[in-house]
């Protein structure tokens, strides 16, 4: 798997655009969005190539405690994760304050009781497991869904002679929600041995028994020099016998693959700027497929689809 990282760096480093963080202080744009750590970098990249003047202001999941999304007012706590971003968007709608226009999400709907929000897919990602390269766990690491269920419910406590320390992203993380669903573990079943970490931050895997879910797209972008490299010495493992990458790119046939989304108020789908930016295969997001793939994500046939709706 170390060879995968090296190949990835060679493949992506040549093609990739630079990474961007929050818009500069005082630089407020038409569409303000918050949420997912997984997609913050690719949406930041898109924000630099869409519109003249630039249309999208995408605020990272971590950083300062608060952000300001408009020229006056609109100082809000920084949402960390998909669910936090979606909830911030819902609060903005409820307050009718115009502070937020979209949320980044690496999960689908969690509540379909209303059609208030629309999840618009724009790329493919996958989630696999990561361990330290200097750990005995990194010995052709290949775990089944059943084994992962046992690891994160703390029933399987050692592998290859190593005591396991499972880690999960924070509870507002879309990756956490997605991964637990895939391995068949509810929040109530998460074991007491599991610790929390900031998602896709391999530097937080400090012990030889640490094992955590990791976005494949984020790993590719980090090891390829496209974004801030947070992978540390982590390497990716297989799940159910399938490798997460193929020829230095995301393996879209990986069993834990997922669409990622920009979530917008359903009532704003007909807004000219929202529609031009996010809606349909000819939208500005979808037609910038090169930028999306530079950040490690895969292309999808349903980019810009507006059929998935829900409350949160």
Automatic annotation (TrEMBL):
<feature type="signal peptide">
    <location>
        <begin position="1"/>
        <end position="21"/>
    </location>
</feature>
<protein>
    <recommendedName>
        <fullName>PBP domain-containing protein</fullName>
    </recommendedName>
</protein>
<dbReference type="InterPro" id="IPR024370">
    <property type="entry name" value="PBP_domain"/>
</dbReference>
<keyword id="KW-0732">Signal</keyword>
<dbReference type="Pfam" id="PF12849">
    <property type="entry name" value="PBP_like_2"/>
</dbReference>
<dbReference type="InterPro" id="IPR050811">
    <property type="entry name" value="Phosphate_ABC_transporter"/>
</dbReference>
<feature type="domain" description="PBP">
    <location>
        <begin position="78"/>
        <end position="278"/>
    </location>
</feature>
